[in-house]
Amino acid sequence: MSSLTYAVRDSATMLRRNLLHAKRYPVSTTGTLIVPILLLLAFAGLFGNALGAGLGVIANGAIDYTDYLTPAVLVIAAASGALSTALSVNLDMTAGIINRFRTMAISRAAVLTGHVLGSVLQTIIAIVGVIGVALLIGFRPDATVVEWLAAAGLLALLTLALTWPAAAAGLAAKGPEGASNIQLLAFLPILGSGVVPPESMPAGVRWFAEHQPFTPIIETLRGLLLGTPIGDNASIALAWCLGIGLVGYLWARALFRREPSSSSRQVFSALQ
Amino acid sequence: MTASSSQLAIRAAGLRKSFGDKVVLDGIDLNVAAGTIFALLGPNGAGKTTTVNIVSTLIGADAGEVQVAGHDLATEPDAIRAAIGVTGQFSAVDKLLTGAENLWLMADLCHLDRREGRRRATALLERFDLTEAAARLPPTYSGGMLRRLDLAMTLIGDPRVIFLDEPTTGLDPRSRRTMWEIIRELVAGGATILLTTQYLEEADTLAGQVALLDHGRLIAQGTPEELKRLVGGGHVRLAFADAGTLEAAARALGVAARHDEALALQVPSDGSVRSLRALLDQLDHETIEVGELSVHTPDLDDVFLALTGHAKEKGTETP
Questions:
Q1: What is the arithmetic mean of pLDDT over A66-72?
Q2: Against a cut of 0.90, is the pTM above it?
Q3: Percent of chain B beyond pLDDT 90?
Q4: Is there a domain that residue B304 lies in?
Q5: Distance CA B165, CA B147 (A)
């Protein structure tokens, strides 16, 4: 077999390992599912009328608030699922088995690829769950099959793009506390066009909200699912996803190839 | 033992490694003949684990050359990885997978075909007495079972060169003996083993060659017997009932070292039956009653003390 065949086979083995972990210890999947659902219920269920009435775009009847909110919650679900990879990678790197993998003739990238693909699959399952709850509480998309596929593709791409830098952060973090902090970034869509339109925000925050990467992604998703105008948001969204994914991938690869300094430090301190 | 380089399973020359400004290895040479057990003996902090980490491709050395199983570390690390198995000091099992799943994972990563992988896993579980625990998760295992699972994972790819970093540290005497049996069987099956230990008894019973490592330097190397010869002969210790008898014995034997408080004498001796009989005959002849007699052959502890001027700070207790 060629080295590429081995790389694919090793990655598949590592993916099976990560899925088995997820099955046996489903905390990260359920966590990815619960937070977006709570957000959905809180904003749409509790504050929905007040928020909807106060917002110009929504008050004029062009769009229902649950419809407005749901794409953002899907993006939050994608982001929080992807970013949880930081914690699982970090926990794995500090366990003894990673040094065993490093002394075996297996593809160097396989360990990380397994984590990343496992996270993407778990996150996609969580997103499907969030869509189900959204439909139950009144989310009424008007998307065609093609638009659904495009939306699914965009969410999958976003998840993949965020999983790589999360894996890198997990490699870089000194411990699980540091690694789990990165998950807070999943709430960044709120400081975009996620919950309320940026036009309603104070000037400084508004500038950030209009230019941060989640906003064009949310707007593209809204356009695909609800028919709002997309404009050049789709190309900006794609550029952000590809850029973040590529930088994250290169960062993670560089960190993983680095000598296991943290573990040799552990060994060293154990020697003292 | 002499061996041409083709018969060497592990060859290291001039290994150096520092962590920051702390020098951990200060020029180590190792020659391990194929099909033998080689023990790296030393106290905590001597550099044993660092040596294993380097020759098993885990970390790089600052200087030096390494060949393992005929492959050069600098140019063919993956060929080395394919030939070796490593069981580290810290447990390297996946805690979220059952014993059997851990072995299947290793079989897959060794690129065994599925049926062969399952067959070897089942055989190893049987051989290491883990069949009943195969479907349980490792946190329910005892220390000895964890070590055996760890070693089984190392063996599933049938490695020719096996590194064992302190394989019995923390094990109870019975598990330690089981581990020794397993290690002997591996070598009988043709593998080469480099093991590190802080237990002299372990190096003494298992290894054909022992290297003493202290502060990042090899201070002696040879068979256990050769090393013991470095410190000269042993001694016989005689204890007496009272000071009068002690006095009489001391006069009769002439050169003995005296311990007045313990009412004991220390007489140089090679510990052979012939010399013991001669000693006792002489005491009989003078009608001197001996309370207790014990024979002390030099152990590797004596070697350490003789070569370094300090005892092994830790781990001198015999398991």
A1: 90
A2: no
A3: 49
A4: no
A5: 11
Beta bridge partners of B237: B266, B294
Q: Could you say which residues from 159 to 198 on chain A have a Cβ atom under 8 Å away from some Cβ of chain B?
A: none
Predicted local distance difference test score (pLDDT) of residue A270: 38
Residue B238 has pLDDT above 90, yes or no: no
Domain match, B135 and B274 both: no
* CATH (domain of B242): 3.30.70
> For residue A124, is pLDDT > 60?
yes
Interface check A271 vs B, CB under 8 A: yes
Kindly state whether residues B135 and B224 are assigned to the same domain. yes
Contact present, B118 and B104 (Cβ < 8 Å): yes
**Phi/psi at A227 (5° precision):** 80, 15
Label residue A236 exposed, middle or buried (CB < 10 Å: 0-12, 13-18, 19+).
middle
Of B62, B61, B83, give the one whose Cα is nearest residue B9: B83
For residue A101, which residues of chain B lie inside 8 Å, CB to CB? 109
Q: What is the 3-state secondary structure (H, E, C) of B14-39?
A: EEEEEECCEEEEEEEEEEEECCCEEE
ipTM over 0.90: no
The tens digit of pLDDT for each residue in A204-226 reads: 888 898 889 999 999 999 999 99
Distances (CA, A) of A32 to A28, A75, B67: 6, 12, 48
Taking the CA of residue A75 and the nearest CA in chain B, the distance in Å comes to: 30
Using the Cβ of A100 and the Cβ atoms of chain B, whether some distance falls under 8 Å is answered with yes
Compute CA distances B282 → A121, B289, B294, whole Å: 86, 11, 17
- Separation between Cα atoms, residue A248 and residue A162, nearest integer Å: 8
B14-29 residue pLDDT tens:
999 999 888 999 999 9
What are the sequence ranges of the domains in chain A?
3-259
Q: Show the tokens assigned to A227.
A: 């028919």
For residue A61, count CB atoms less than 10 angstroms from its CB and return exposed for 0-12, middle for 13-18, buried for 19 or more.
Answer: exposed
Which residue spans within A38-183 are E strands per DSSP? none
Cβ <8 Å between B88 and A9 = no
- Answer yes or no: do B54 and B21 share one domain: yes
Instruction: For residue A267, name the pLDDT band (cuts at 50, 70, 90).
Output: very low
E-strand spans in chain B? 8-19, 22-33, 37-41, 63-68, 71-72, 84-87, 161-165, 192-197, 209-214, 217-222, 234-239, 257-259, 264-269, 292-296
Under a CB-based contact definition with an 8 Å cutoff, are residues B180 and B168 in contact? yes
Three-state DSSP at B312 gives coil
Do B120 and B246 reside in the same domain of the chain?
Answer: no
* Structural domain contains residue B319: no
Residues B244, B223 share a domain: no
Residues B132 and B266 in one domain: no
Query: What's the CATH code of the domain at B159?
Result: 3.40.50.300
> What average pLDDT does the structure give for chain A?
85
Joined together, the tokens standing for residue A70 give: 């749901």
Q: Could you tell me if B132 and B270 lie in one domain?
A: no
Instruction: Show the domain range for B241.
Output: 234-297
Question: Which of B201, B229, B257 is a domain's end point?
Answer: B229
User: Total domain count for chain B?
Assistant: 2
Q: Is B21 on the interface with A (CB under 8 A)?
A: no
Backbone angles phi, psi at B290, to 5 degrees: -95, 130
* Contact yes or no for B49 and A271 at CB 8 A: yes
